[in-house]
Structures are given as structure tokens and as C-alpha cells.
Amino acid sequence: MATKSRTQRWSPLTCLTPASLSPSGLIILESNDGEVETLVRTNVELRYYGSGALSLPTTSSAGKSAPWNARDLDLSCYVTTHRIVLIDEKDVVGGSIPLPLVQTAQPAGGPSFRSPKGSYKLELSTHAWGELTIVFRGGETNSYSQSAKHRDDALDAIRRSLKRKAWQDKERQAMKEALRPSRAIASRKVGVDAILTQNALRHRENANLADVAFGGSNERGAKSTSVMRKDKGSKKEDIDSFLGEATELIKVIQKYSATIERQRAVTATASSAGRGDTSGKDTAKLVGMMENMGMTSALSQKQSGSVYHKQLARQLVDFLRQNDKLTKAGGMMTLTDAYCLFNRARGTNMVSPEDLLKALDLMKELNLGISKRSFSSGVMVIQDDAFDDEIMAKKLADLASSSDNTGLTEAAIAGITVMDVCRSLKTSALLANEQLLSAEQMGWLCRDSTIEGVRFFPNLFKTETSHPFGHR
User: Fold this and answer.
1) DSSP string, 233-274
2) Tell me: the pLDDT tens digits for 323-336?
3) Interatomic CA distance for residues 351 and 276, integer angstroms
4) Does residue 149 contact residue 137 with C-beta atoms inside 8 Å?
5) What integer is the mean pLDDT of 156-168?
6) Parallel, antiparallel, or unpaired: how do β-strands 380-384 and 102-109 relate?
7) Is 33 helix (H, G, I), strand (E, B) or coil?
8) How would you label 310-345 residue by residue, b for 16+ Cβ within 10 Å and e otherwise?
9) pLDDT digits over 80-95, tens only?
10) Bridge partners of 125?
11) pTM
């Protein structure tokens, strides 16, 4: 995806801490610190009312090569547990405001006697950039009535993150890890006995994490229902309590991820040395379990607001790019396969087929490198934009030609079938059939239909310079 250099723009956005973005334009979360997205709002402005201009980050190499502009328009605002991220999706430029640097967040603006339709604003007092103002314009609908709700939602998310201080969880977790009973008991033992005891105690502690996370709400519920009804913020407190305990679950998952990487390295070394690796099946099973645990960010439609389907399109693209899922599938995947894999990764926060179709329709507009394609038979697939039908047709023609020149006996049958293409390209029968029909329409193959079935052969009239029928 083409990106605009930050040095060609000097504005409050480019003066913030640079934010790393994924290939589809989503923010890359700091998973090692347990960062989680909590809110997304679009069509916001970032303003700086201070005297003079802000300084560009020290990592910027070219300096102030553009005139200062104190206002950034049409941005997307992401609130996480660790920071506020503002992104210009057109120029693919992102900046972040770490929450530890935020002193106060206060609402401002709104209708008044002098200005009946005054802008709804959020004023941030920061240590690094002074006073910054975020103006909400009502999302993609540009609705003034929605502006107030977007401002209030963002303010609530920021205040909750400031109250929780999730960025300190790493230090708290390190202290809690040092005080775990498994370490204290195992320290009194030596050798194999110490290792076995520590592993057994850790397994027991990890198994109780979910019970501890939900235990607080269960105990409160047993005390008195009437008290809970009066407490309007009890649900949010329960969620915050669960997120705090869930940090330990994240650490366990990360340990398994590190184990996977080590096992892959051992497997690669064993394969290069010509030795067998008995742990390959266990590693493959562990990889499958980790993929099923899902996405780092899986915002619901309520949290993402009007930008939900765009977020969904970007998440799907990043999911298919991860570990080259789409490339390994031959650059093309049926909607049913993509839908099942994506929902399996999202866990309980599943998407509906209608939402997935709307997200696919936006991929071309967002220029994400992946888009939806419909064959003449009505079959719809997700296809890499780099996929070339001409190259695939020539590949199938070469495959059909090789079947004719392999020294087979006269009893053997030449040509290729759908199943032959499935085995060769490692794709489904549905896609193999569509690709064969496409190659036939382009003149690279011709068919022979018999009672045994349909076989495809290379078209001998096809040349490199002309079409077999003289036109395309």
C-alpha cells in the first residue's frame, strides 16, 4: 500500500509519536504489554491552538520540509488501553498519544447561545505536546446529533483506560510472578524434582486463572441482587477486573507462542540434517490451538460505530496475509472457506455472512490488495489482486501438456481432470473447476466430454502471438 512520507507534512498528527500500521492500515497493538482496542470513531479533527508550531519527532530524518498546518482533518480515532491513536487513512499516516503522558481529558464545545451548532470537542492536556483538541464531526454520516455521542463515548473510554493504567500491568505481573507459590516451593527442591514440582504447580495456577477472573462477580452476585441493581457501574468494574486477571492468560499464551517458534527452529534444523522430528505433530497441533485463540483486535459493531465494515475488511485482509494463508491457497479462496476460518479465529465474537459480504464490497474501494471476484457460474471467491488469470491458464496448459509427454503407455489417458488440478495446485474441486473453465474461455485449453467425464487438453491452435479465433 502506498504511503505518504511524514516529512511531506508538518501538522499535529506528524508531531505525535509515530504509530506502526499493518499492511491494511490497522494499528499494530503492543501485544507484549497486553494492549487492547476499546473504541474506534471516524471523521475527527486534531487541532493545536498553542503559539508557534510543534516539533517533529526526533526519529524524523528530513525535518520541517513543509509549511506548518495546525489542523488535521478527516482522521480516525482509536482508543486502546495504552494510548490514543489518530490515523489519516488516505495518506496512511498515524500518530499516537501515550496515555501515561495525558494529564487530563475534559469535554468542551457543544451548542451555545452564540453558536447553536458548536463543535463537540475533547481537550487533552499532555506532558509532551501541551494542549491538544480532538473535534468530533459525527462519523461518516456527518451527523451533528452523533457528534455528542461520539465525544462522550471516546471520553468515557479514555477515562476508563486512565483509571485502569494497563501499561503498569507488566511491572505488576513481574512482581506477581516472583511471588508465585510455584517458585517459592520449587526453590526448596533441586534437580528433576524441582522441575516437575514447578510445572505441576504452574499448571494448577493457570487452570484457576479463569475462575479467579470471574470469581469477583460471582461473589458479589451472591450477596445481594438489589445492591447490584443500584450500582450502575458494576458491569464496567467487572470487565475491568476480568481484563486485569486476563493479563496472566495472555502471558501463558505468549509462552506457548515462544514454544512454537523454538519447535519450528528445531524441526528446520532436524530436516536440514536429515533427521526425523517426533515433535512435529505436537507442534502442528499447538499451532492450530493458537490460531483458534483468535484475533488481537476483534471490535464489535457497537464499539467500531459506522466504520465497522471497513474495520472488518481490514481485519480480514490482515488475517489472510498472516502466515500467507491466501498465498498458500493459490491466491484464491472461496467465501465459505474464508468465512469459516475467520470466524474460527474470532472465537465468540463472530460476524454474520451479511456483514462479511459488505466488508468484501469495500475492499476494492479501500485498495487493500485483496478483493471479491464472481465467476460466470455465480461462484464468489476472495482473490489476491496480484493473481493473473493468464498466468494460471498457461500453468494449466503446461500441466495438460506434461500429461501428454510423460512416456505413458497407450492404455494411460492423457489430459487433465478437475481432480488432477486439485492434487497439483492443492486447491478445492470447486476452484479447480472454475480455473479450468476460465482457461478454456481464454483459449488455452479445450475439453473432451465423454461418458467417463470431462478431460481438458492443451489447445494446439493457441500461439504466443495470436488468439486461436483471431480476436479476444
Assistant:
1) THHHHHHHHHHHHHHHHHHHHHHHHHHHHHHHHHHHHHHHTT
2) 888 888 878 888 98
3) 41
4) no
5) 91
6) unpaired
7) helix
8) bbbbbbbbbbbbeeebbeebbbbbbbebbbebbbeb
9) 999 999 999 888 899 9
10) 104, 131
11) 0.63
